[in-house]
Amino acid sequence: MRAKVFLVGAGPGDPDLLTIKAARTIAIADVIVHDRLVSDAILDTAPAVAARICVGKQPRRHPVPQDEINALLVRLARTGLTIVRLKGGDPFIFGRGGEEAEVLAEAGIAFEVIPGITAAQGCAAAAGVPLTHRGLATGVRYVTGHCREDAPLDLDWSGLADPGTTLVLYMGVAQIRQIAARLIEHGMPANMPVLAVANGTRSDERRLASTLLGIADAVTADGLANPVSFIIGDVAGRDLAVATERAVPHLVEPVREVAHA
Predict the structure, then answer these.
(1) Is 179 exposed, middle or buried (0-12, 13-18, 19+ CB in 10 A)?
(2) What pLDDT, on the 0 to 100 scale, is given for residue 207?
(3) Does residue 21 carry a catalytic annotation?
(4) Of these residues, 4, 21, 30, 57, which one is catalytic?
(5) Rounded-to-integer distance, Cα 15 and Cα 202, Å
(6) Per-residue model confidence as pLDDT tens digits over 123-169
(7) Do both 35 and 101 map to the same domain?
(8) Is 171 a catalytic residue?
(9) Structural domain count of the chain
(10) Would you call 57 a catalytic residue per the annotation?
(11) Catalytic pick among 35, 87, 90, 188
(12) 126 in the same domain as 90
């Protein structure tokens, strides 16, 4: 059997947000190599006999280095089993999926990328925040809140401080004070709205609204911990209260009833 690895995006956490293709692939997995942020609810959709290997990372703590993960995928693929590399969000957005794809290609192993809803999209949608909005934001940028091997942040601060662009900051709790200060230093208004979303789309989702100047103190006072996505921009101040209540599971039956009416 020809070796193949599926690089699958698990989405932001709610299993209902898996793509159909991702769900079908997980359902036939022999081995699942998954990140820390893949929810138990999603892992439970895999066959009971599928082996699960956790290779998750945390800020400043990488128990399984990326090189070892790469080598593991190559070894597993050569067994001829169906290998699913399951990543939170999308494999190619801050998921190291590109690096793993390169290693698989160099080893002559076929792979398929199955995209997922990334945290930016999931958190924004759950909170009723449009990432772009006419008159408020003409673009959106995804930014990592930490660097490889915990190196100091060296970002394009002037470019990021554009008030017409929504910023979505991934895994930035530890650096949010520095990031906010640098953005203000480079011209972003101190009163720019910021929405912090922890465990976005999950049953334990939490949200915290503040300003760029106040977000670091607010996060500390609230005890908000990763995984957190920060939405920075005028769109974060939009009042779309009708969409902010997580009631998606309860919408299914009413919609069907209307359809049959």
Answers:
(1) buried
(2) 94
(3) no
(4) 57
(5) 9
(6) 999 999 999 999 999 999 999 987 665 567 889 999 999 999 999 99
(7) yes
(8) yes
(9) 2
(10) yes
(11) 35
(12) no
Catalytic residue among 14, 171, 188, 192: 171
83-87: strand order across its sheet: 51-54, 31-34, 83-87, 4-9, 110-114
Encode pLDDT of 68-104 as tens digits. 999 999 999 999 999 999 999 999 999 899 999 999 9
Other C-beta atoms closer than 10 Å to the C-beta of 27 total: 12
**Residue-wise DSSP of the chain:** ---EEEEEE-BSS-GGGS-HHHHHHHHT-SEEEE-TTS-HHHHTTS-TTSEEEE---BTTB-SS-HHHHHHHHHHHHTTTS-EEEEESB-TTSSSSHHHHHHHHHHTT-EEEEE----HHHHHHHHHT--SSBTTTBSEEEEEESS-GGGPPP---HHHHT-TTEEEEEES-GGGHHHHHHHHHHTT--TT-EEEEEESTTSTT-EEEEEETTTHHHHHHHHT--SSEEEEESGGGG---GGG-S--HHHHHHHHHHHHH-
Dihedral, CA of residue 72, residue 78, residue 80 and residue 84, to nearest 10: 30
Q: Which of 2-16, 195-209, 243-257 has the lowest mean pLDDT?
A: 243-257
Domain contains 74: yes
What's the rounded Cα separation, in Å, for the pair 221 and 223? 6
Name the domain boundary from 90, 117, 144. 117
Q: Which amino acid is at 147?
A: C
Last residue of a domain, one of 67, 95, 117: 117
251 domain residue, yes or no: no
Domain coverage including residue 124: 120-243
Phi and psi dihedrals of 89, rounded to 5?
70, -130
Structural domain includes residue 50: yes
User: Are 94 and 148 in a shared domain?
Assistant: no
